[in-house]
Every structure is written in C-alpha cells, then in structure tokens.
Amino acid sequence: MERMTPPTPPAPGPIRPQPWLAWLYLALAVAGGVLPWLANLDYMRQYGASFDIKVFVALANANPAAQSLSRDLLIGASAFTVWMVIESRRLAMRHLWLVLLSSVTIAFAFAAPLFLCLRERRLAELAREGGVSGG
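Structure (tokenized):
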C-alpha cells in the first residue's frame, strides 16, 4: 500500500503591506478610545469624578459575566502587550512607549489597534526600503 504524504506548504514570502489595513486599524483605535471613555464618563457621573479605581475594579468583578470579561481582557491584553514589545523591537519601531502609555491612560482598545496601525505603516516603510522578511 502506498503511503501518502501531506503536501508541503509554500515557503513564507515577504509581507505585503496593505494600505487599507492601516486605515482600518486607525478607525478601530478611534472607536477604541471613544467608546470605553463614554462608559468611563458614565461611571464618573454615577460614582464620582475622582474615578475611584477600587470601586471600578470591584464593579468590574461584581458578577460572573463581569469577571469573565475582566479576566479575558487582562489575559488577552497581557499577551498582546508582550507581543507588541517583541514585534516593535523586531521591526525597529519607534515610540512604543506612547502606545504602552495610551493603553493605561486611554484604553487598551485604543492602544492595540493603534499599534497595529503603526506596525502596518512600518511594514510599508520597510517594504519601500527593500523588503521585510517573515511575519
């Protein structure tokens, strides 16, 4: 009986930046900055303008649904942040500190798509300079 071997996948080629993708990420960053802050403003109206982080965390864990979303965000954001640092070094990206700062001062929902937008722009820059490998 003849043994069948699976086909060999094609070797990865250079990353081809997609200009529209940077714009999509930028739009998501804007939404990720505005929508969480609308909720934050509602929170401050209801619980005081001082933004008591202790109360905020307690409310974020007030029931199993809130706990699920909070833990999901914490773990996903942590993993993505580690990748952002590694990827920014790999691509020699500048101003990562601004993205990391915006993650805690604006929202992770703003910072993550902002990083992806900046990454797309960097990939396009590297492609113009003579190519970029892997991805």
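The CA atoms of residues 69 and 118 lie 27 Å apart. The radius of gyration is 20 Å.
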